[in-house]
Amino acid sequence: MADKRFGGFWRRLFACAIDSAILYFVSVILFLIGLLALKLGGVSFVNILMIGDIPRGAGLFAVAYMATTLLTGMVYYVWFHGIVGQTPGKRLFGLRVIQISGDKMNLGVAFLRWVGSIVSGLFFFLGFIWIAFDGRKQGWHDKIAATHVIRTGNRSDAGVHPAGNPAPTVYPLSDVDNYSI
Question: Is residue 110 situated within a structural domain?
Fold first, then answer.
């Protein structure tokens, strides 16, 4: 079956859940560091909790926290997709991001894919749901960046190798039916 080459909706969803859990853990650590910085700055959490007295600068803290969390997510996805070709979640579920052209992933394409993922999530996550119905299992972010998410370890994956290792042969994705399992 030809679609076994591409990473399907559920496999990608579970991989995304793993990556989200990792980013959530990093986010909690950043939040605790920010709270510690506020405490050292003289902010009393007892006043905030008991009286509801929100000190000056709390809004700035919230904006700085959200910006830092967004930046952390961007660095995470761009780095792993651009350098390694897969995030830890994708690695766990046997997935890899490749360019349609067969060229090696790079940071520019990974950044474009990350920006595209914001677009995919803007309209009720339709860009991600699209993966379930697309013949090549591409979300809007994959179409924007001209990438595919493929399953690794298949016989049909013979031409795709981890970053840094030369591939002896790159099979064109237009002929994917010829390489089915």
Answer: yes
